[in-house]
Write a structure and sequence with these properties.
Elements lengths: L8 H12 L3 H14 L21 E8 L2 E8 L2 H14 L4 H6 L2 H6 L3 H4 L2 H21 L1
Antiparallel strand pairs: 1-2
């Protein structure tokens, strides 16, 4: 039996906030602010094993499973990408590994309209980050 995919309350807050921000400049600022609010990833975790290939900027993701709960932290040298990591953390953190695998990230991020407003390069990087998160969850599931 697979767990029903659901989003976290934290992600739903972003969806609600985005509904109030009609201008894309404001939405980008919001995403960047989310990234700035994240605790930086420990320098010791910024290693080849945690580096995400397929991103134009430098990106590191470090996932852990504690008591059956999936959580990851991340870092990027690009402000908007760091913000996207923050959005993904709110989408996935706190779920079980099986629930992570059940999330339709494309559809959920589509609710924010991100698919239409990211460059092709950023969209590819976002897909690479989602794939890395799913891979970590699959290994733990």
């Amino acid at each position: 039996m697979t767990e029903l995919a659901m989003t976290t309350e934290a992600f739903e807050e972003i969806v609600e906030d985005f509904e109030f921000l009609e201008d894309w400049e404001d939405r980008y600022r919001y995403v960047i602010e989310q990234g700035k609010a994240m605790t930086p990833l420990d320098q010791a975790l910024r290693v080849p094993a945690t580096k995400v290939d397929g991103c134009a900027s430098q990106v590191w993701l470090h996932a852990v499973i504690e008591n059956g709960v999936f959580r990851f932290d991340g870092e990027s040298d690009a402000m908007i990408v760091r913000g996207l990591i923050a959005v993904l953390r709110r989408l996935y953190n706190g779920l079980t590994p099986n629930a992570v695998l059940g999330v339709d990230a494309r559809a959920e991020l589509g609710r924010l309209g991100l698919n239409d407003h990211l460059s092709a390069q950023r969209s590819n990087g976002l897909r690479a980050m989602i794939e890395r998160i799913r891979q970590a969850a699959a290994e733990a599931a």
